[in-house]
Amino acid sequence: MATSPARIMSEFSNPNLEPLITGEAIQARIRELGAEISRDYAGRNPLLIGVLKGAFIFLSDLMRAIEIPLGIEFIAISSYGAEMRTSGEVRILKDLDVAIEGRHILVVEDIVDTGLTLSYLLANLKSRGAESVKLAALLDKFERREKDVPIDYLGFKIPDKFVVGYGLDFAERYRNLPYIGILKNSEEAQMGLPMNSSSA
User: Fold this and answer.
1) Phi/psi zone of residue 192: left (φ > 0), alpha (ψ -120 to 50 degrees), beta?
2) What is the distance, to the nearest Å, from the Cα of residue 39 to the centroid of all Cα atoms in its chain?
3) Structure pTM?
4) What CA–CA distances, in Å, run from 96 to 32, 73, 124, 125?
5) 10-54 residue pLDDT tens
6) What span, in angstroms and rounded, lies between the C-alpha atoms of 158 and 129?
7) Which of 19, 30, 48, 133 could bond to 105 as cystine, CB 3.0-4.6 Å?
8) Could you confirm whether 113 is annotated as catalytic?
9) Is 68 buried (19+), middle (13-18) or exposed (0-12) by CB count in 10 A?
10) Which position among 95, 97, 110, 113 bears the catalytic label?
11) CATH code where residue 142 lies
12) pLDDT digits over 84-104, tens only?
C-alpha cells in the first residue's frame, strides 16, 4: 500500500516569523535603486563588491537592475557567526581577487546596524587606491548605530529587531525566505523547530 508523503513544513509561513517587508516591496525598491545607480555611474564601469554571505541575493537582484557595464567581486568579513551579537572584532575572511586602484567601488551590503564593521571595510577599500567608494545597503537598523556610515543607496530603514530572510540568517537559517521577517523567538529557531545576520 502506498503511503502518503510527509507534509512539508514551509519556512515561508513559519509562525516564528513576523513579515516586515514583502518580496514585492523589495523588488520595487531595487528597481528604483538600479535606475539611480545607472544614472550616477554612467560611463564609469563601477565594481560592485558584495559582502558575503548576507548580501548575495540583494547583489544578484541589484546588478540585474543596473543597465550599465559593471564588474562584480566578493569579500567576506567577520560578523555574527552563530550568535546574535557582534564581537566588535573585524577580520577579512575572504579578500578581493582583483586590484581596485583607480576603480569606482560600490559596496553592496545587506544591513547596516552598528556601523563598526562597514566603517573598517570602507576605509580599507579607500586605502587601496580606489577612485571612489560608496555604499548600497538593503536595510538600515539606524537605532543601533555606533559609528557613522554614509549610506549612498538605501533600501529601507527598519526598527531595532532581529531580522532574517532574503539572504539574512540566524545561525545559517532563513536565508531562503523571499521576504524580510522579524524573528520572534530565537531560542526556538536555534533548536531547529520548524513551525513554533550579520552585523555591519
Assistant:
1) left
2) 23
3) 0.85
4) 28, 6, 12, 10
5) 888 888 999 999 999 999 999 999 999 999 999 999 999 999 999
6) 33
7) 133
8) yes
9) middle
10) 113
11) 3.40.50.2020
12) 555 556 788 899 999 999 999
